[in-house]
TrEMBL record:
Pfam families: FAD_binding_3, NAD_binding_8. Keywords: Monooxygenase, Oxidoreductase. It comes from the Bacteria. GO terms for molecular function: FAD binding; monooxygenase activity. Residues 202-315 form the FAD-binding domain. This is 2-polyprenyl-6-methoxyphenol hydroxylase.
Length: 393
């Protein structure tokens, strides 16, 4: 059966859902608030579970061509120099079990093209404000509908989702600069910490659309209310702090010549117990918010989209929404719990937690079966991501 489906938000999750559902023969219209659909943010890592969804919509090849394979995540403490994070992906010659570091613009372009190819209609300049009687309402446009189903993929500030989230005390500034050789491996996400109140990261992230210049995503952790003070201070003061904590990173960060090159991201933590209502499915950040410490945000949105599409293919619509929620429940809950537990060890004012991290958790993480468990955690498949939904032959 074919449905008329509206999607609020042309982000990674929304466009993935659009491409999957259009392939099933449904009529898909995506509404987005921007004049032209575009990504927001810098680099991110698509884990093997997310790459599998990209392959479902035919975007995997394009994404891998623009991204950069990441085989290791390595972090050390600035003062002592000791390793405090070391996770290695499985070394697979086909690249199927490695992370894919990619700029959001390149990922967005790959998914957008896959959605357009299968006939998805995108309506920009439509800021969704409400869903009433199966009609979407907008800030400055006439209502549209009725729709058999509305999918809320409008992100952390969604007007349709009832989610209540607790703001996290730390966020980060993010930017993108050309990659330059400074002694860091190009297949590694590298981080440096000072206790838990400073975190610096460099991630080689592939190339931007229309360019063959290799890029790197850079980030610097800071309290969520510290951005204005950072912008008011001379940029050279901040770069001197980076060089003091991590001299090797100085050539990368010296390419930041304006405060405007770095964007502040603030995080919150919360999960909807029921990510659906009558004729409404909620996916991505509108359904579950967390810090990016485990690098799962975009992956979770794409997994939501895939689970929802599979549920709609296997069940009548009234049964598909609870089936989608059930399929994603435990994967979401476990990763949300892990994010809640790990984040304060890397982003907080605590002196106790980073000592616990450095002297107990990290040594334990290097012995026995623990490295394999951590690899599965980072890859996103510590448990099946949609356990109760299996494709039908």
């Amino acid at each position: 059966m074919s449905y008329n489906i509206a999607i609020a938000g042309a982000g990674i999750g929304g466009l993935t859902a659009a491409a999957l559902l259009a392939r099933q023969g449904h009529t898909i219209t995506v509404f987005d608030q921007f004049d032209t659909p575009r990504p927001v943010g810098s680099g991110l890592v698509i884990q093997p579970v997310g790459q599998a969804v990209l392959d479902e919509i035919g975007a995997g090849g394009a994404a891998r061509a623009k991204g950069n394979a990441v085989r290791r995540m390595l972090g050390h403490e600035a003062d002592s120099g000791r390793r405090v994070l070391d996770v290695t992906y499985d070394h697979d010659p086909n690249g199927l079990h490695v992370g894919l570091a990619i700029h959001r613009a390149a990922l967005f372009d790959a998914i957008l093209q896959s959605a357009l190819i299968v006939g998805v209609t995108i309506k920009p300049s439509h800021e969704v404000t409400a869903l009433k009687d199966r009609h979407l309402h907008f800030r400055s446009n006439d209502p549209q509908g009725p729709f058999d189903l509305v999918i809320d993929s409008s992100g952390a500030s969604s007007p349709l989702s009832p989610i209540q989230a607790k703001p996290l005390p730390y966020g980060a500034i993010w930017g993108t600069v050309p990659w330059c050789e400074c002694g860091l491996p190009q297949d590694q996400l590298t981080q440096v910490y000072r206790r838990a109140d400073r975190m610096i990261g460099i991630m080689p992230s592939g190339t931007l659309p229309g360019s063959d210049i290799q890029q790197a995503a850079v980030f610097w952790s800071m309290p969520r209310d510290a951005h204005d003070a950072w912008r008011a201070a001379p940029l050279s003061d901040w770069q001197a702090k980076v060089a003091q904590l991590w001299p090797q990173a100085a050539p990368i960060f010296e390419q930041i010549t304006s405060h405007e090159q770095m964007t502040m991201a603030r995080y919150a933590h919360g999960t909807l117990r029921k990510p659906y209502a009558d004729n409404l499915a909620i996916i991505g950040d509108a359904a579950h918010k967390a810090s990016p410490q485990l690098g799962q945000g975009a992956n979770m949105a794409m997994l939501d989209a895939s689970a929802l599409a599979k549920a709609i293919a296997q069940h009548p619509l009234q049964d598909a929404l609870p089936a989608y929620a059930m399929a994603r429940r435990w994967h979401v809950r476990i990763y949300q719990a892990m994010s809640w537990a790990f984040t304060p060890q890397y982003q907080s004012d605590s002196r106790i937690l980073p000592a616990f991290r450095d002297h107990l958790l990290f040594p334990v993480s290097q012995f026995g079966p623990v490295p394999r468990v951590l690899t599965r955690l980072v890859r996103g498949d510590m448990i099946p991501p949609m356990a109760s939904l299996t494709p039908r032959d």
